[in-house]
Specification:
Elements (H helix, E strand, L loop, with lengths): L1 H9 L12 H10 L10 H5 L19
Length: about 70
């Protein structure tokens, strides 16, 4: 537990190598976890982030209803 809290205080984290994580996802996480709160992404920046820009389909297939 002490090690975990120490890593949190130091803002030390890594992304798992065995999991595929897009560059956009990593960039979003890094922007949210900046040590200085004033440097973190704002809600407007989060909502406009490339990771959240996905095409919205005009309709869903019938199979999505089951």
């Amino acid at each position: 537990v002490k090690t975990t809290y120490k890593r949190i205080k130091m803002n030390f984290y890594t992304f798992p190598e065995h999991v595929t994580i897009s560059d956009e996802a990593k960039d979003l996480v890094q922007g949210l976890l900046k040590k200085n709160p004033e440097s973190r992404l704002t809600i407007e920046q989060v909502l406009a982030h490339d990771f959240l820009k996905v095409p919205i389909p005009e309709s869903l297939p019938v199979s999505a209803m089951t």
